[in-house]
Specification:
Belongs to the RtcB family. The protein has 482 residues and is an alpha+beta fold. The chain is built from 16 helices and 19 strands. Strands 7, 8, 9, 11, 15, 16, 18 and 19 form an eight-stranded mixed sheet that branches. Strands 1-2-3-4-5-13-12 form a seven-stranded mixed sheet, sandwiched between helices. It has a two-stranded antiparallel ribbon with strand order 6-10. It is globular, with a radius of gyration of 21 Å.
């Protein structure tokens, strides 16, 4: 019996949300879950998959990954593609933290070299990586300079000395989406963004020092420069208040556009506009600017992380060899070419809490990865593990080249705080050998491991369904939380 009445199990890893689950569905929904994760499905998130299927111009299925949970309009973990001629674009399909994403760094250090000094390392990282709600950083920008960030993304950061040109080669879209328009962004967004570049933020954002605990695909791991017990660093953050304000501004504009173009919605949080309309193109250009800000943000944080490692271990840059494995966006909309019903079609793919997972040979991959496919970085909670996967052909056939983005929340923030009452999450993690430094005690409670699904279960589904294959498992040693 399916947990959610009206859904149907297709096979071991997929359930169907049939047309008719909600009125007006133009296509069916597909959710990638096994029987274990199906028990954690929320009715509201399944209804959101169905609601997305009602939107004009949707092509293929309305999709959700195994880390699905309820979001704003679209589910988190959702993927939907729309015809660029007949379809829509929706801020709810990207989310408030535009281009929230993950960057993975590798180094020449090993677990044994780091362990005796992990507390010192975490303390110094905490000093140099600004974190917390509304945190501001070392970089102060005027409007004109911030417009350059919006246009150039991570390229701007490297030009200012925050990193090396080689870093850009291993970032999705090389850290810059063309077509960003700084003139369609509100003064309020600039005001929120001008002091926040180079900050981690709060909530589920983090910087984590890890080591490679297990290797599943030795040849692919080697091609990525990863080896057993190697120290890595994972940075998870996005476009901060700049992107949040852009989303907020355009949700309001889209509510008016929805009325103007006579689009009927089952939920006002799906507010949208035809992709080619003036409103649709304005949002797309503003979203690209926020995406570029996020890539510049992760670039700056990487630069300071590298500096802290050099200082603590007194190594030369060549000896440390800290470099990017890959940087992926998991809240974004992109124009891409996909095969739909046997024909090549230009679509705008919304990935909200979903990661691109292109297979080997795809023309958008950096040259160093064309022979293996795109690295897919999947963080877990701070007490368990994270994974690096590799994109597969089946993702192109079934999910517009997409896979999951993380563990997915199991408890709301309020529920997590209630469950953590009377406990020291910091001490519990220390007992597992994980040193955590956080801007607030409440953040640790909100983000405690039990607040999330087990990422190993999530990753097993996408691995077994053939969307992306496991390459390495990473274990945390030290964590900076917002």
């Amino acid at each position: 019996m399916p947990k959610i009445e009206g859904t149907e199990r297709i096979d071991q890893y997929r359930i169907r949300v049939p047309k008719g689950f909600v009125q007006g569905m133009r296509t069916e929904g597909i959710i990638f879950v096994d029987e274990i994760l199906e028990q954690e499905l929320e009715l509201d998130s399944v209804r959101q998959v169905a609601n997305v299927a009602t939107l004009p111009g949707i092509v293929g299925k309305s999709l959700a990954m195994p880390d699905i949970h309820t979001g704003y309009g679209f589910p988190i973990g959702g993927v939907a593609a729309f015809d660029t001629e007949e379809g829509i674009i929706s801020p709810g399909g990207v989310g408030y933290d535009i281009n929230c994403g993950v960057r993975l760094l590798k180094s020449n250090l090993t677990r044994d070299e780091i362990e005796p000094r992990i507390k010192e390392l975490v303390d110094l990282l905490y000093i140099h990586i600004p974190s917390g709600v509304g945190s501001t950083g070392k970089i102060k920008l005027n409007y004109e300079e911030l417009k350059k960030v919006a246009r150039k993304g991570a390229i701007w950061a490297v030009e200012q000395g925050y990193g090396e040109p080689d870093d850009l080669q291993r970032i999705e879209s090389h850290g810059c989406l063309e077509g960003a328009d700084p003139e369609v962004i509100s003064k309020k967004a600039y005001e929120r963004g001008k002091d926040q570049l180079g900050t981690l933020g709060s909530g589920n954002h983090f910087l984590e020092v890890q080591y490679v605990a297990e290797i599943y695909e030795p040849e692919i791991a080697e091609a990525m420069g990863l080896f057993k017990n190697q120290v890595t660093v994972m940075i998870h953050t996005g476009s901060r208040g700049f992107g949040h304000q852009i989303c907020d501004d355009y949700v309001r504009e889209m509510i008016q556009a929805t009325k103007k173009y006579g689009i009927e919605l089952p939920d006002k949080e799906l507010a949208c506009a035809p992709f080619l309309s003036k409103e649709g193109q304005r949002y797309f250009a503003a979203m690209k600017a926020a995406a570029n800000y996020a890539w510049a943000n992760r670039q700056c944080l990487m630069h300071w992380t590298r500096e802290v490692f050099l200082r603590v271990f007194k190594l030369s840059p060549k000896e440390l060899a800290m470099s990017v494995v890959y940087d992926v966006a998991h809240n974004i909309a992109k124009e891409e070419i996909h095969m739909v019903n046997g024909k090549k079609m230009r679509v705008v793919v919304h990935r909200k809490g979903a990661t691109r997972a292109f297979p080997k040979g795809h023309p958008e991959l950096p040259q160093c990865y064309t022979h293996i496919g795109q690295p897919v970085i999947i963080p877990g909670d701070m007490g368990r593990v994270s994974f690096v996967l590799i994109g597969q052909d089946k993702a192109m056939q079934e999910t517009f080249g997409s896979t999951c983005h993380g563990a997915g929340r199991l408890l709301s923030r309020t529920q997590a705080i209630k469950k953590a009452k009377g406990r020291s999450i910091k001490q519990e993690l220390a007992n597992r050998g994980i040193i955590v430094k956080s801007a607030g005690k409440e953040t640790l409670a909100e983000e405690m491991p039990e607040a999330y699904k087990d990422v190993s279960n999530v990753v097993d589904v996408v691995h077994n369904a053939g969307l992306a294959h496991k390459v390495v498992k990473l274990k945390p040693m030290g964590v900076i939380k917002g």
